[in-house]
């Protein structure tokens, strides 16, 4: 795999799509919106150099975006959360003309504290169309997928690596990818953020080398999307931020990639939500500690959580075990992957704690949510294993490497 400069087109494309997604929210906060042609124009600008220079990763990314736009337009949304939370929030933004429409806390069961990056895109699609319907706004998920598709092309670089990651992403997320739920988007950004952190450490280890600006940009974009996608994304962003913080001791100028997303999130969303006195239902219904201690004393409930985790993700726990063995055995070569691996393990611990302290009936909560929230762990573990495999192939003698360059 030959080196790709920091100014790689894929990195720029991911950054521009991220900027458009953020700009759309800021415009809705001011009562305006970003018309759909803005995203379409950037997509066409990405297509031209990919065709001209036969950059296969870019062609795959653009092709996937087109497919992901078309598929949701073929049928209406059917999932409860997709329709009653995310599409409902989008309709409120569209009708009220503001990003903060839900902060009157009407219908609190729709989780009015949830961030609205994707609902804001859906509202912009409806405004561009001229009226609200239940079909066209569903394409908002495809637009939100644009940044990770291009950032993955930048981070994995070779055609083989990129195709392998896309295959893993579809394998893990396909069931929910275009359903209107946010969990698949959260999982995708989480997996890429893990790779970006490892790359920040790997490329930033040598003070004489250029600063790893490219991975830092990809990390900042992933953090921004995680924060504005769903509440669980804030927990992931917190773990990721803690994991990359030691890298700033050597590269302090890169701290912006963590500070900026959190600052934007606080100013644009958390402060208005706090001012509206809207809190998560997890914090409104009794003591988390009391529920957790009670369930810890019940082997049946404690074991039920472990049972669901094993049944739903046993293959990915095996992948994580392989990653741990590889990193432990070759820690001198793969030390830069340790923070990302710790994040994956930390996220599993957080999920276990969430189910342990839930105020819902435990079996019902596991049956309705465990498979969706475990997607981030599944894709995270699989992505880290793929990342180490790609690095290992890159260190083989040139004659042994697969000749599958992306053309970038």
Description of the structure:
The protein is an all-alpha fold and 408 residues long. 72% of the residues lie in helices and 0% in strands. The protein contains 17 helices and no strands. It has helices at 9-29, 36-52, 56-70, 80-96, 117-129, 140-156, 159-177, 183-204, 213-229, 231-244, 256-275, 281-284, 288-296, 299-329, 331-334, 338-357, 362-394.
* Average pLDDT, all residues: 90
Helix content range of the residues, please? over 70%
Biggest pleated sheet:
none
The helix/strand series, from N terminus to C terminus, equals: HHHHHHHHHHHHHHHHH
**Taking Cα atoms only, what radius of gyration do you get, to the nearest Å?**
21 Å
Describe the protein's topology.
Layout: H1 9-29, H2 36-52, H3 56-70, H4 80-96, H5 117-129, H6 140-156, H7 159-177, H8 183-204, H9 213-229, H10 231-244, H11 256-275, H12 281-284, H13 288-296, H14 299-329, H15 331-334, H16 338-357, H17 362-394
Helix pairs in contact: 1-2, 1-5, 1-6, 1-9, 2-3, 3-6, 4-5, 5-6, 6-7, 6-8, 6-9, 7-8, 7-17, 8-9, 8-10, 8-16, 8-17, 9-10, 9-11, 10-16, 14-16, 14-17, 16-17
């Amino acid at each position: 795999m030959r080196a790709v400069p920091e100014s790689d087109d894929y990195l720029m494309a991911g950054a521009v799509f991220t900027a458009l997604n953020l700009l759309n929210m800021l415009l809705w906060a001011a009562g305006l919106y970003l018309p759909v042609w803005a995203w379409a124009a950037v997509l066409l600008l990405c297509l031209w150099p990919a065709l001209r220079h036969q950059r296969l990763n870019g062609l795959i990314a653009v092709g996937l975006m087109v497919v992901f736009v078309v598929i949701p337009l073929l049928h209406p949304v059917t999932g409860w959360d997709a329709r009653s939370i995310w599409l409902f929030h989008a309709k409120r933004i569209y009708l009220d003309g503001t990003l903060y429409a839900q902060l009157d806390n009407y219908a609190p069961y729709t989780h009015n504290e949830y961030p609205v990056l994707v609902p804001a895109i859906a509202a912009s699609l409806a405004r561009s169309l001229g009226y609200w319907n239940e079909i066209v706004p569903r394409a908002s998920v495809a637009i939100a997928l644009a940044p990770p598709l291009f950032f993955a092309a930048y981070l994995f670089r070779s055609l083989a690596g990129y195709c392998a990651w896309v295959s893993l992403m579809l394998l893990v997320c396909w069931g929910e990818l275009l359903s209107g739920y946010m969990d698949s988007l959260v999982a995708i950004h989480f997996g890429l953020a893990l790779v970006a952190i490892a790359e920040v450490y790997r490329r930033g280890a040598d003070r004489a080398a250029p600063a790893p600006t490219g991975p830092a940009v990809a990390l900042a974009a992933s953090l921004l999307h995680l924060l504005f996608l769903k509440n669980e994304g804030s927990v992931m962003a917190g773990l990721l931020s803690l994991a990359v913080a030691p890298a700033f001791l050597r590269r302090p100028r890169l701290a912006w990639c963590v500070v900026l997303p959190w600052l934007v999130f606080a100013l644009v969303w958390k402060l208005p939500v706090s001012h509206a006195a809207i809190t998560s239902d997890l914090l409104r219904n009794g003591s988390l500690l009391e529920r957790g201690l009670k369930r810890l004393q019940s082997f049946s409930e404690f074991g039920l959580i472990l049972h669901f985790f094993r049944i739903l993700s046993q293959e990915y726990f095996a992948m994580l075990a392989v990653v741990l063995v590889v990193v432990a055995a070759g820690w001198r070569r793969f030390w830069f992957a340790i923070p990302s691996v710790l994040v994956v393990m930390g996220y599993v611990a957080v999920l276990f704690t969430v189910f342990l302290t839930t105020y819902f009936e435990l079996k019902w909560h596991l049956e309705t949510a465990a498979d969706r929230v475990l997607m981030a762990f599944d894709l995270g573990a699989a992505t880290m294993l793929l990342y180490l495999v790609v690095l290992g192939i890159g260190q083989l003698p040139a004659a042994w490497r697969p000749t599958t360059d992306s053309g970038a």
